[in-house]
What we know:
There is one protein chain. It is built from three helices and eight strands. The chain has helices at residues 2-17, 149-175, 179-187, and strands at residues 24-29, 35-37, 47-55, 59-65, 83-87, 92-97, 106-114, 130-136. It starts with a helix and ends with a helix. Mean pLDDT is 76; it is low at 1-22.
Amino acid sequence: MGAVYAFSLASLYLAVSFSPSAEGLKMNATPGQDVTLSCKAWDYRPLKIVEWSRSGKTSEYILIVRNQNSDPIIPEQSYKGRVELLDTKEGDVSLILKNVGVEDSGTYKCYAVKKANQRKRAIMLPQPIRTIYLDVAPPPPPPPGHGHLGLIAGLVVFALVFALAAVLMWKKKTLSPPHDEAVHSLQV
C-alpha cells in the first residue's frame, strides 16, 4: 500500500510540475514591432474555444475562436487586421499582434477549452493557460553627445571643403598676374 501511495504522490507531482503554466511572462516591445504572445494548448486538443483577452484600463476580448476550424472573432475594432493565431490545429494558439503601439501595453491572457466528447461537458477553466505582461515603450534616447554624430561629421566635412576652396582661390589670385598687366605685356 505504501508503494502505491508513494507512486500516486509522485504521479500527482509530475502532473502538476509539467502541466501548462499560467504564470506571467514579461515582454518588452517598441512601437511598430510585431510581437508573438506565446500560448501552447496541446493538452486541450481538440480545441472547442480559444480566447485571448487583455486587461488594462478596461478588460477586452482580443480574439475568440469558437471552433478550431472557424474564423476568429475580433470584437475590438482596434485589433482588426492586426491579430492572428499561429496554428490552432496543432495546439499552438500563440497570438501574433502586429504593429504594436503604446496603447497595446497591458496584461494578456490566453484561455482554451477542450472539445468534450458526447458523454462529458466542456469545463471552462477558471485560470488562463498563459498570462503575458506586454510593455510597449519607445526606445530610450541616445546618450548625450552621440545623437548628433552625423550632423557634426557633416559640418566638419563642409568646413574642410570650404577652407580648401578658399585656399585654392587665394593661390590662384596670388600666382596669376592681374588682367591689365597680362594684356599690356602681350601688346609690347
